[in-house]
Write a structure and sequence with these properties.
- With 181 residues, the protein is of the alpha+beta class.
- The protein folds into 2 domains: 67 residues, no CATH class; 92 residues, Lipocalin, CATH 2.40.128.
- The chain is 17% helix and 28% strand.
- It has 1 helix and 8 strands.
Length: 181
């Protein structure tokens, strides 16, 4: 910095260093006197720990170094509205098509007469179809004779199934299937 520094800035820098040095010399006896006054006056807490700013400090004394971090735990399931979403489609009799959808924690089965017609949907997570698992994460659909079968896979590896008629009359509850492993 030397002579290239403007004179006003040099003077402020020197004055700041002088004030800091004086504060350091004056603070030592003040700290000792405050520590002797004791905690009944709000003094004596934290002095000598690098926390003295001239005010009474209520910190309960000096603290040691921070300990090491522990290992992180496993991440839990996302819940009923987590990131799990899935769709599956199967051909039905003639040109009809059936689909199963898992979205926002709910399962639906739908049917349409042709591949370009609009779907008619049934919610499989309602009171008429009890037992739907809250942690469903995958879905599949199959058509067999007069019934449409829907299966869901949970985040824990469990499989549940339900079925409806091909006219989408769904009145059965969800049933757990034996795990594949």
């Amino acid at each position: 910095m030397g002579s290239a520094m403007e004179p006003g800035r040099r003077a402020r820098l020197a004055a700041g260093m002088a004030v800091a040095l004086m504060c350091g010399l004056v603070a030592v006896p003040v700290q000792a006197a405050a520590a002797e006054a004791g905690p009944e006056y709000g003094y004596g807490y934290g002095y000598g720990c690098g926390k003295d700013d001239g005010r009474a400090f209520k910190g309960g004394g000096c603290t040691g170094p921070r300990g090491p971090k522990g290992p992180k735990g496993d991440r839990g399931p996302a819940g009923p509205h987590g990131p799990c979403a899935d769709v599956d489609t199967a051909s039905g009799p003639g040109t009809s098509e059936f689909s199963a959808v898992l979205s926002r924690g709910r399962a639906y089965v739908g049917a349409r007469a042709t591949p370009t017609a609009p779907y008619r949907w049934q919610d499989l997570t309602r009171a008429r179809t009890p037992g739907f698992p809250r942690d469903a994460c995958g879905v599949s659909v199959r058509v067999g004779g007069p019934r449409v079968y829907v299966k869901v896979l949970t985040t824990g590896g469990d499989i549940y199934e339900n079925s409806c008629t091909t006219a989408l009359v769904c009145t059965l509850g969800w049933t757990a299937v034996v795990r594949p492993y």
